[in-house]
Design a protein that fits this description.
The complex is a heterodimer of chains A (390) and B (519). Chain A has 17 helices and 4 strands. With 390 residues, chain A is mainly α. In chain A, the strands form 2 sheets. Chain A has a two-stranded antiparallel sheet. In chain A, a hairpin with a 6-residue loop joins strand 3 and strand 4. In chain A, helix 1 packs antiparallel against helix 14, helix 1 crosses helix 15 and helix 9 packs antiparallel against helix 14. Among the domains of chain B are: 195 residues; 58 residues, no CATH class; 55 residues. Chain B has a two-stranded antiparallel sheet with strand order 1-2. Chain B is mostly helical and 519 residues long. Classes of the chains: A mainly alpha (390), B mainly alpha (519). At the A-B interface, helix 5, helix 6, helix 7, strand 2 and helix 15 of A face helix 2, helix 3, strand 2, helix 11 and helix 15 of B. The structure holds protoporphyrin IX containing FE (HEM). Protoporphyrin IX containing FE (HEM) binds next to helix 6, helix 7, helix 13 and helix 14 of chain B. Protoporphyrin IX containing FE binds next to helix 6, helix 7, helix 13 and helix 14 of chain B.
Chain lengths: 390, 519
């Protein structure tokens, strides 16, 4: 069936999948957000154990989604993988290191004789929560603001010896870290950070059975929701007012177009609707628990979670669809990556599309397995009787 | 090409080797222990005997400790293709990316979803659903090994692809050829089964320690029984698939094969140096010839091993470097000239196409295609072709130690199993000590396997097509040095923590049923 699809349809299909994975990843980063709140919310060792274990039963999904997002991006848009990872070296390396230290922290934190002591593992979880969210947000922002690099495939044939036969070269100052100096990028980074914390608070409301923690959660929800909204609005308004990287559909030349992303929004009404719906759902998810805490507190994570997925998904579509360069080069506009010039071959996209049919099945068993072990809220008592705890 | 930055290439290789080897400390145990735990739980569900449950949970705890650090060290590998081998990611990303993505979708989610049920579901789900989850964890982890090993096998023998001059990269033309290439199949089977061997050694060694201490007799003996049977079957399979791997190496990577065997001059009826000590032959200078100081040979064996024919001709390092017209082997000099033509023709093709000159571009394309199988050698056109010879002593010794240890493991499994069945194992202290000390040897064999496979193919990232100097990312060497140091420090710290936690848990022993494993 996929064989009959045109090349551009497959490219769009894969951009949708990558966008969806990215959106789910941002939602699942509530785990990272939660890791930055362990000491704010848990005042005793027992309370912290409850919080860590709640996050610990979910961290692998965030992690696996990140890995799958990377793999899917590689398989469908290898030129992005090559250009961005090999160029913005330090941003990606720091993100990776932050995830490396996360992976052991849960399992090792509460084990006796764990070499570094449980505090260290909690600090590592905090670092993962902070760097993971801020840097991923910053990196995604460069999809709109651009980076400094050149791609020249003919370098591969360069045997004259004046340079290495490498097709892409980063000309940015600090191999990617310069992105964090751009305020607009940073605004998105901080948006993701505070969003992750808000989502974590909503998740705790849904899962924790402990009134002392709940009191703190409620207070923190407000404290984190405000900066989230401020940074989100800053980024979004900035985005809609700024020029974007437009691709001429005939000549494939890239040029700057004023209000490009705003134009994308009105030229793709479906995306605009998704975006608005997403934003409204996130806000609802936050406001309802604030106003009717007792009755509504468990539902916030669902509304805000789905809202997050819709919003991030539509942002990715704004970056890549409607003749837009999704990974623009501000150094050499014509080196910018588009879904057309950076994708895998028709054959590979077809093969991968068949594999993508497994995704609903994967979601179904994840849902089923979660349901079977998450059927009641967690409290300190359970932590004492559970045989495997973090 | 004076501007090839060798320190960049070397540091990037060092970083990859460091992170891959660290990752591989933990992977084989995950692959094997997941099945061993699944067998044990099956016995529990079948017999309803709570002791089996206690045994299962004990090994499961150790599995969890090992698994966490396996995940931690693994994420870096996937992304490193982009961060440090960016040219590679473009040049073959069309083929290589797919297995990585499939691995995530098919295997990692399976693993991570059901691992949660396995650890937290004891009191929440039915016995049979729990058992199913444990099996799915084992299947998931082995499936993830499948995809990454297919990817590695493909680098050693790039099947199922075609170069597209318009996009300047290799593109997949046959998915099944990539998946079912003989190299990939052997590599997958050899690697997972040696994981089962290593895990069996681990379980037997730890159990031997309990017997030496006079503790946990029942748990130890039952564990030895399960691991002994699994290990014995697995080591036989390891030898079988290792033999199969050697044949694919002889066929597709003759230089690696010659280096593994220290075969300098090719011959018919080639003997196998079962044991040997090498000595650098000074007279040969840059030819890097290694002579034998001492060896024990098995006549005709090498020819037979490589081609299942005692008379077959096996080319040596000299034949491959300098050519051998009698056996139709081109010299590296000739191959690098052809490679240079391929690369130059690609440039001409692109330029002619841009200029709209169809006849010129067609001619250039034809020349390119005729010479493409030598493409990678082109990067050595102005270089010393001896750079294309891998380290012979490293390949030779690593290979022999791996194989030798394989036979040691075989003997150990047989003896241990026999003694356990005769109910005499706890009295044989020498055997118990041997079993304990075989644990590190299991890791040594496993590491050396990768040394054979990877050192032997240098400098090829993709055999004959892409050498390391054309595969790296253009980052500053100092950046790679810093990340190398960071990984070194972080991974070593985590390894120490892992070993301490693991040994503490072992010393503590299994928990009484129903109590928490941590307090
Ligand atoms: C006993 C007979 C054995 C033979 C004949 C054998 C043969 C081989 C060969 C030829 C390779 C290289 C494949 C390539 O370059 O593509 C290899 C690789 C490897 N071997 Fe062995 N081996 C044996 C035992 C073992 C044992 C006991 C272990 C570990 C416990 C082991 C672990 C590995 C690993 C991890 C690799 C790298 C992955 C691969 O290339 O398959 N081998 N082996």
């Amino acid at each position: 069936m996929f064989e009959t699809f045109s090349y551009i349809t497959l490219q769009e299909y894969w951009w949708i999948i990558v966008s969806l994975l990215g959106a789910i990843l941002v939602f699942l980063m509530f785990v990272q957000g939660g890791q930055t709140l362990i000491y704010t919310l848990g005042k005793t060792e027992d309370e912290r154990t409850v919080l860590v274990n709640l996050l610990g039963r979910k961290w692998e999904f965030t992690f696996t989604t990140l890995v799958t997002f990377g793999g899917a991006f590689f398989a469908s848009f290898p030129l992005f993988y090559s250009t961005s990872f090999g160029g913005a070296y330090w941003v990606w390396m720091l993100i990776l290191i932050a995830f490396v230290v996360q992976a052991v922290s849960y399992e090792y934190r509460s084990k006796p004789n764990n070499f570094f002591g449980h505090r260290t593992y909690e600090v590592l979880l905090f670092i993962n929560g902070l760097l993971g969210t801020v840097l991923i947000g910053t990196a995604v922002a460069t999809f709109f603001t651009g980076s400094d690099f050149v791609v020249n495939k003919m370098n591969l044939t360069n045997l004259t010896g004046d340079k290495m036969p490498i097709i892409s070269e980063w000309t940015g100052l600090a191999y990617g870290l310069e992105a964090a100096l751009n305020l607009q990028n940073l605004a998105l980074g901080l948006t993701v950070f505070f969003l992750a914390r808000v989502l974590a608070l909503l998740y705790f409301m849904n899962r924790v059975n402990n009134s002392a923690i709940m009191e703190r959660v409620k207070k923190q929800l407000l404290y984190n929701a405000i900066p989230f909204v401020v940074f989100f609005l800053t980024f979004t308004i900035w985005l809609l007012l700024s020029s974007g990287f437009a691709v001429n559909p005939e000549t494939k030349q890239v040029s700057m177009e004023p209000y490009k992303y705003f134009h994308n929004l009105i030229q793709m009404p479906a995306v605009a609707i998704l975006f608005l719906l997403g934003v409204v759902m996130v806000l609802m998810g936050i406001i309802r628990p604030l106003t009717c805490f007792v009755k509504c507190s468990t539902k916030g994570i669902w509304a805000a979670g789905i809202g997050t997925i819709l919003t991030v998904f539509s942002l990715f579509l704004l970056a890549g669809f409607n003749n837009t360069a999704y990974y623009p080069s501000t150094y050499d506009l014509q080196s910018s990556l588009t879904i057309e010039n950076s994708s895998s071959s028709h054959y590979t996209l077809v093969a991968m599309s068949y594999v993508s049919l497994l995704v609903p099945f994967v979601l179904a068993y994840i849902f089923y397995a979660w349901r079977s072990i998450d059927n009641k809220k967690i409290d300190i008592e359970e932590m004492k009787s559970e045989s495997h705890i973090y | 090409m004076e501007h090839i930055d060798f320190s960049l290439v070397d540091w990037s290789r060092a970083q990859f080797a460091l992170t891959a080897l660290y990752h591989w400390i933990f992977v084989p145990l995950t692959l094997g222990l997941s099945f061993i735990v699944a067998f044990m739980e099956t016995l529990y569900v079948r017999t309803g005997n709570p002791e089996w449950k206690r045994i299962t949970k004990f090994w499961m705890t150790l599995f969890g400790i090992n698994f966490a650090i396996g995940v931690a060290t693994g994420i870096i590998l996937e992304f490193q293709f982009g961060t440090n081998w960016s040219n590679y990611s473009w040049f073959v990303g069309d083929i290589f990316g797919a297995p990585l993505a499939i691995e995530g979708i098919m295997a990692f989610f399976l693993e991570s979803t059901f691992i949660a049920v396995m650890f937290f579901g004891w009191k929440k789900v039915s016995k049979s659903f729990h058992l199913l989850s444990t099996w799915l964890v084992a299947i998931g982890s082995n499936l993830s090994a499948l995809w990454i090993l297919v990817a590695n096998g493909w680098m050693q023998y790039p099947a199922g692809m075609k170069f597209n001059p318009d996009t300047v990269r290799n593109e997949m033309v046959n998915f099944w050829e990539v998946l079912f290439s003989p190299v990939a199949i052997n590599k997958f089977l050899h690697s997972v089964s040696q994981g089962y061997v290593l895990a069996s050694i681990f379980v037997i060694g730890v159990s031997a320690w309990y017997l030496l201490k006079g503790r946990e007799q029942l748990l130890a003996k039952r564990s030895i029984l399960v691991a002994g049977v699994f290990g014995l079957l697995s080591i036989l399979f390891v030898i079988l698939t290792g033999d199969g791997s050697a044949r694919t190496v002889a066929k597709y990577q003759p230089m690696k094969f010659a280096a593994m065997e220290n075969l300098y001059v090719g011959q018919q009826n080639a003997p196998l140096a079962a044991i040997g000590i090498l000595q650098r032959d000074k007279a040969e200078g840059q030819h890097k010839k290694e002579d034998f100081l001492f060896k024990i040979e098995i006549p005709n064996m090498l020819s037979y091993m490589a081609f299942l024919d005692a008379n077959a001709y096996v080319p040596g390092i000299k034949d491959l470097v300098h050519g051998n017209p009698q056996h139709n082997i081109l010299s590296y000099k000739e191959r690098s000239e052809k490679g240079r033509i391929a690369i130059a023709s690609l440039a001409e093709y692109k330029n002619a196409k841009k200029a709209g000159n169809d006849s010129l571009s067609a001619a250039a394309l034809k020349r390119f295609e005729e010479n493409y199988s030598h493409f990678g050698y082109g990067y050595y056109a102005n270089r010393d072709v001896h750079e294309l010879v891998p380290s012979v002593p490293t390949s030779f010794y690593s290979f022999r130690i791996m194989v030798g240890l394989g036979f040691h493991f075989l003997a150990l499994f047989i003896v241990v199993l026999w003694l356990t069945l005769k109910n005499k194992i706890e009295t044989k202290r020498f055997i118990l000590y041997t079993a304990l000390w075989t644990i590190p040897l299991g890791y040594v064999a496993s590491m050396l396997g990768w040394v054979v496979a990877e050192v032997g193919r240098q400098p090829w990232v993709i055999q004959d097509i892409l050498p390391t100097i054309a595969a790296v990312s253009q980052v500053k060497t100092s950046s790679v040095q810093i990340t190398f140091a960071l990984f070194m420090v972080i991974f070593t710290g985590l390894l120490i923590a892992e070993i301490k936690i693991m040994t503490t848990q072992i010393k503590k022993g299994p928990a009484a049923e129903g109590s928490s494993t941590i307090h």
